[in-house]
Each structure stands twice: as structure tokens, then as C-alpha cells.
Amino acid sequence: MALGVILNRVFRTDNNPLFEYVYQNIEDIDQCYYIIPKEDFGNEAKMKRNYYYGTLQKFVHALYENDIQPFLMDYDELVDFFKEKGINEVVIAGDIMSYHKEEYDILHQRENFKKEDISVTTIRANHYFKPSKTRNNKGEPYKVFTSFYKKWRPYLMKRTVYNYDIKDLAKVGVKSKQKLKGDYSQSGISEETAQYKWSDFLDKDIEDYDSNREYLPEVLTSQLSIYLAYGVLDIIQIFNDLLDGYDKDEQNYEAFIRELIFREFYYVLMTQYPKTAHIAFKEKYQNLNWSYNEDNFDLWRKGMTGFPIIDAAMGELNTTGYMHNRMRMVVSQFLTKDLFIDWTWGEEYFRQKLIDYDAASNVHGWQWSASTGTDAVPYFRMFNPVRQSERFDKKALYIKKFIPTLNDVDAKYLHDTYKHERQIKEQGIELGKDYPKQMVNHSESRDHVMSEFKAME
Ligand SMILES: Cc1cc2nc3c(=O)[nH]c(=O)nc-3n(C[C@H](O)[C@H](O)[C@H](O)COP(=O)(O)OP(=O)(O)OC[C@H]3O[C@@H](n4cnc5c(N)ncnc54)[C@H](O)[C@@H]3O)c2cc1C
């Protein structure tokens, strides 16, 4: 048999279920083509593209070191390649959600393969739970996180699932002479570095996870979202490690595990309700009268809303490709509530910018904030950006980190710039000239949100 192994963002040599599949079937394999389909990012997502290619390049090097020389091609070249090489069976990670374009998902790819009679084996490589096995007693998917968590948390257990030796897999591998063009050595992450950072997090920061999670000036959380987005670490290994260390500090370990189960929950929802990628999960909110004001959207996108906490967070996203979880909640509420702009615009912008982009977590994160999702924040519990700033960035360290123009202004004036316009001016910053004035009045926005949502009840 000639087998195609599609390493679609499962960029790891250790604990890789696609490699385990080859190992389990090695007797039947004459030729094995290891293939990395490259994603296309267009012009919009430069930082994300570089991160992706940097990670891909590091993975290719790791494969070379193990005597595997993978084939690199665009997604739309896959089928022709299979035909040319006589490959009639492929194995692919079925749970890798789209990173940039939906047509890269197996949901869409499968159709192309089917037309050419290429048989497809899908393997879960990036999630712990199998969606079809996580239904409730009525056979329906869980729609409330707490019930999902209570039911499935006890099923987490230490598992040993990998037996392969990568050297054996190289023996059946057909070697490609292709090289990845360009030098991305300054971007991305290698499997080795990710392993090191993860161990470091387990050694130190996890024991303060609950409080660190809300600390803004620095990122003290795990950044696992980035490693998982590229499949450089294995979720089974992660849960094994967490269960190993659990007794050291149950409270913080459990808080961390809970977040990872959130990720599983959103993944299950997305597979059961794929349309929610574009439309409100709650049917009654599918026809909300959203705004599509491009000027307002632009101000939000560029971090020029006049609310320093919002603008700092957008600065973090635009300059680092990452944003703290708290701030993802705050800026998404600002866009969907204070500006009442359709959440899909924000989701799309995050898609272009986030290096840890994950369709399920992003879509459902946005739907949570927009109050259109399952289990979402009720529309009347709208975040006030000034209160959020006072509470989570009291000393304005985060604000000043991402908006250096405001460095010399006292922190206490930076949460509500409208109220402190005079004091801010006395400290050298004229609103409307050196830094924007607040673009909306929060309490007027609140009235608007109330009336629009009530109209749908
Ligand atoms: C509007 C919005 C958009 C988001 N978009 C994404 C996205 O594109 N990709 C992404 O991975 N996460 C997304 N999240 C979830 C969360 O913000 C990130 O997972 C988290 O900030 C990543 O940092 P970390 O790995 O250091 O998190 P940690 O706090 O160290 O958490 C560990 C892991 O738990 C999971 N996790 C944590 N919080 C959440 C959450 N709220 N929802 C789902 N899983 C969670 C992630 O896998 C994360 O890596 C989004 C949240 C919101 C509100």
C-alpha cells in the first residue's frame, strides 16, 4: 500500500498519533509519503504567517534529523499529488480546526478526496474527548459548560498510547527533495522549546495560576494555546502531566484543567453545530440588528477608541499576535455591546491576527461576549470598560506598556479619560490631539443594547 500521511498542523515528532498509526500498520505499507500541506495567508496576516512558517520550518528540521524528508505543497495540490503517486489511502488529523481558511478543514477536504476514491482515515490528534461520545443521557450534545465539565472531568486519566520509534517510520518513508523557501528562523516555536516552556510553567507558575490569570502587565499564563494551535504538544501528554502533579496544589491544577476542558467543550460544540462559525447559536438572536459601521470598526481595530484599556489590548494584539484572556473578553464586549457591531467582524479580525487562533475557542469566545452563544453572558450584564480598567489594571501598567504616549499621566486618570480630561491635559496630553477622546458614551450604548436585545425576546 502507498499511504499519504497528512501532517496538517500536528507539528511534533513525539506523541504524534499519525506516526502511531503508521507504526501500527507498518507491515502493510510499502511506501509512506509524509506530507505537510502549507496554508496560505494572503496579505493581511503577516505576523501570523511568519509564526506559522517559523513553526513549520522548525518541525521540518526535526523530521530531517530523524531521516524523514516530507513533501510540502499547497492544499489544492494534494489530490493531484496522490493521483500521481498512486496513493489511495490517506491518514489525517480530523480535529484540526481551520487556522486561517475553512476549506483546510477535513470537513471540506474530505469531499475532494472522496471524488477521487481516496480513502481517508481521520485521527483525533489535538483534543482529548471524542465529540460523539460526550452526549447527555438523551443523546444530545451538552449546551452548558458546567454540566459537560461535571460529567466528563472524572473521565480524565493517565494514558499511555504511543509505542512508535520514529526511526522505524523513516524506513518506509519516501524522501522528498523539496525545501521550504524563505528564512523564518526568527519566528515560531519548536517542539523542544514548547516542551521546555511547558515544564517550566509546571515547575513555577501553575501554583499561582488563579491569580496570575488576571495579571495584565505580563503574560504569566501557560501560553499553551499557541503550542496547541500548531500541535507542537500533545493534549494527552498535557493531561498526563497535570494529573501527575495534581496533588501538589489541587486548587490551581483544577482551575487549569477546567480551562482545558472549556477548550474541549467548545470543540465539541463546533463539531456538533458547525454553522455557529457564522451564525448566532441562540436562534432568537440570529436577526439582531447589528451595526456595520466601518469607521467605528476601524477605530476599534487600530486601538483608537479613547478607552485606554481597550486601546492597550488592541495594541497587544496588533504588536504581539496574542492577547490576555481577560482582555479578549473586554474588547469583544466593547465591540459587540458598546459599538453594537456584529461579532463575526471581530471574530474575523482575531482570526487574522491571533497566532493561537483556534476556530472553536474564538467563535464561541466571541459568541459568549455577544450574548448570542450557548452559556453566554446575559446581555444585561454588560462590561463597563472603565470599571474593568480600574479593577484589572489599577496602576495602568498594561495601558502604559502598550500606549507609551500615556506614560507620564497618573494612572488614576487613565481609566476614565472623559472625566479627567482637564487633569490629563495638565500632564501634557490633549485629548482629541495627542490621544483620542472616548468614541462612545457607555451608558447610552447600554440603553441601545437593552432595547435591541429586548426586541428579540
Ligand atoms: C473573544 C475570545 C476569543 C478567543 N480566541 C481564542 C483563540 O482563537 N484561540 C484560543 O486558543 N483561545 C481563545 N480564547 C480563549 C482564551 O482567551 C485563550 O485560550 C487564552 O487566553 C490563551 O492563553 P494561555 O494559553 O496562556 O491560557 P491559560 O490560562 O494558560 O489556559 C490554558 C489553556 O486552557 C484553554 N483555555 C483557557 N481559557 C479558555 C477559554 N476561555 N476558552 C477556551 N479555552 C480556554 C486554552 O487551551 C489555554 O491554552 C478566546 C477567548 C475569548 C474571550
From TrEMBL:
<keyword id="KW-0456">Lyase</keyword>
<feature type="site" description="Electron transfer via tryptophanyl radical">
    <location>
        <position position="366"/>
    </location>
</feature>
<feature type="binding site">
    <location>
        <begin position="221"/>
        <end position="225"/>
    </location>
    <ligand>
        <name>FAD</name>
    </ligand>
</feature>
<feature type="binding site">
    <location>
        <position position="209"/>
    </location>
    <ligand>
        <name>FAD</name>
    </ligand>
</feature>
<keyword id="KW-0285">Flavoprotein</keyword>
<dbReference type="GO" id="GO:0003904">
    <property type="term" value="F:deoxyribodipyrimidine photo-lyase activity"/>
</dbReference>
<dbReference type="InterPro" id="IPR014729">
    <property type="entry name" value="Rossmann-like_a/b/a_fold"/>
</dbReference>
<dbReference type="GO" id="GO:0071949">
    <property type="term" value="F:FAD binding"/>
</dbReference>
<dbReference type="Pfam" id="PF03441">
    <property type="entry name" value="FAD_binding_7"/>
</dbReference>
<dbReference type="GO" id="GO:0003677">
    <property type="term" value="F:DNA binding"/>
</dbReference>
<comment type="similarity">
    <text>Belongs to the DNA photolyase family.</text>
</comment>
<feature type="domain" description="Photolyase/cryptochrome alpha/beta">
    <location>
        <begin position="1"/>
        <end position="128"/>
    </location>
</feature>
<dbReference type="Pfam" id="PF00875">
    <property type="entry name" value="DNA_photolyase"/>
</dbReference>
<dbReference type="InterPro" id="IPR036134">
    <property type="entry name" value="Crypto/Photolyase_FAD-like_sf"/>
</dbReference>
<feature type="binding site">
    <location>
        <begin position="259"/>
        <end position="266"/>
    </location>
    <ligand>
        <name>FAD</name>
    </ligand>
</feature>
<keyword id="KW-0157">Chromophore</keyword>
<dbReference type="InterPro" id="IPR005101">
    <property type="entry name" value="Cryptochr/Photolyase_FAD-bd"/>
</dbReference>
<feature type="binding site">
    <location>
        <begin position="356"/>
        <end position="358"/>
    </location>
    <ligand>
        <name>FAD</name>
    </ligand>
</feature>
<dbReference type="GO" id="GO:0009416">
    <property type="term" value="P:response to light stimulus"/>
</dbReference>
<protein>
    <submittedName>
        <fullName>Deoxyribodipyrimidine photo-lyase</fullName>
    </submittedName>
</protein>
<dbReference type="InterPro" id="IPR036155">
    <property type="entry name" value="Crypto/Photolyase_N_sf"/>
</dbReference>
<dbReference type="InterPro" id="IPR002081">
    <property type="entry name" value="Cryptochrome/DNA_photolyase_1"/>
</dbReference>
<dbReference type="InterPro" id="IPR006050">
    <property type="entry name" value="DNA_photolyase_N"/>
</dbReference>
<feature type="site" description="Electron transfer via tryptophanyl radical">
    <location>
        <position position="290"/>
    </location>
</feature>
<keyword id="KW-0274">FAD</keyword>
<feature type="site" description="Electron transfer via tryptophanyl radical">
    <location>
        <position position="343"/>
    </location>
</feature>
<feature type="binding site">
    <location>
        <position position="256"/>
    </location>
    <ligand>
        <name>FAD</name>
    </ligand>
</feature>
